Structures are given as structure tokens and as C-alpha cells.
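Journal club side-thread
Mid-discussion, someone asked how the predicted structure for our own chain would compare to the paper's figures. Pasting it here so we can look after the session.
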Amino acid sequence: VSHVIRAGDKVSCTISELQPLRAEPEDVPIDIVYEDAHVLVVNKPAHMVVHPAPGNANGTLVNGILHHCTLPTITLQSNNILSESEDDSDAEDSVSLDDHNSCMEISPNMIGSSVRPGIVHRLDKGTSGLLVVAKDEHSHTHLSEQFKQHTIHRVYVSLTSGVPSTLSGRVEVPIGRDTNNRVRMAAMPGPNISRHVRHAASRYKVIEVLAGGGCALVEWRLETGRTHQIRAHAKYLGIPLLGDEVYGGTKGLALSLLRPTVASSHRGDLAQLVSKFERPCLHALALG
């Protein structure tokens, strides 16, 4: 039900108290690409949330890992939940920035028993790809330190709307919450004195120009781990990720860029294909 608010109207609402979240083992399929006694590396599918959070209490990657590793149940208090897509060493935001659902992660400094399995870095709900998980406190400590020191190399690949003006480069532009849209971040060039605007650096390289320049396969290497870093930097470069409605990679933009490169007899197929874009075209390809 919608209602136009007018001067003098009073709006009242009741906000339910958040209940503590419990990460219960669940028989959720997980794709393990490497495992030893100390760590495991999983290939997270798109649309899977990493950890239980308000709006996503079960069916998460951690639920599946707890079932696989038969680890103790973890209770999360709301004030110990952090936003997604950042390293533990960098995470500060307490508000989820997932497009439509709350997809927040846990802090490594939780009150109570240590987090198992230990999440030391994060992927957005819509991002697919590799994520390393610590299976014990020792591994968690060492992996967290490596992420803090930026000695772990992360490689992502994406499909972008259009092609960057230079085929490779380095983007060093701070990132902060978009003042015009609270559900997204923004690259903020120039002097920034706010503690909420943080240093961010990404390297990119065009692997292949596709569709006559309507799209490109781009490799990204992160030097920092900020919320939505690649998505914000891609938008800053004028090449929002295909399927990234929040950051400008809309279906309409995709069609406008790709339609001229497709024979008229196939434009119906193109429109059908683009209509199936349900998430930003971003994949975590490698960790090392």
C-alpha cells in the first residue's frame, strides 16, 4: 500500500527487536576446491550469502561449511555483524550494502568463542568465486594478518558495459558511502577528510574486447578490500559491470551498447539474454 505524505501527516512505526542469529549446520551443497587440516577454499555460487544475517538466516555458505566440518554452532549478536565484501582487517561498516537483502558478515573479534569456520575475507551475495576459510584459530590469525598486510593476491574477472579508455591501469580513488544513495558506495576523488571515506586501489587489465566494443572481459587485482570496491571503481571509470543495476550497469545500458553490434535478426535473442541478467557479472577467479 502506498500513500503520498503531506505536510502535517504523522507517521508511526514499530521496529521489531533483532533476535540473536544462530549459524546452524545445514546440508547446503558447497563446492570445495581445496582443503587441508587448516583451511579450505570454496567456490561460492552467485546469489549465496556468506553468513547468516537479518533476512538471510539460513541456507548460507557458512551453514554448509559447519555441516561439512561438523563445527560448533556460533551465536552472533547484532552489534558484532559487519558488512560484506571487505577483509576482516579493513571492515568497519555496520550496515549491509547488499542490493536487496541484508548480507552482513561477522567480525573476527567477536565476543565469545572464536568464529568457525573463520571468515577472513568476503564476497558480495551476487559475486561468484573463490573464498578461503580458516578451520582453526591459528589459521584465522595468520590469514587475517596476510590480508591486513595485503600479501594475499586476489584476481577477479568481470564483464563491463563498454571498454575503458585505457586498456590497463591503476585506480587509486577513495571509496565512501554514496551520499545520494545509501545502498551503494562511491569513488570519491580529491581530498577526503571523513573517516568514512577510505583509501582504495585497484589494478585492471582488459583481457578481451567483446561485441565490437560494447563489452569487455576485464581482470581486476585488488590492493585493498573495500565494500563494493570493484563495482565502485568500474562505475568511476565509466564501465559499470554488466548486470549491476545499483551501479549503473542496467539492462537498458547493455542493450544500447550491444544492440548495434548484433544483426537485426538476432536482436530479439539479445533482449532475451540481457533480461536474464540477475547480478553483477563478477567472479573471484584466483587467490594466492
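Post-session note: The radius of gyration is 20 Å.
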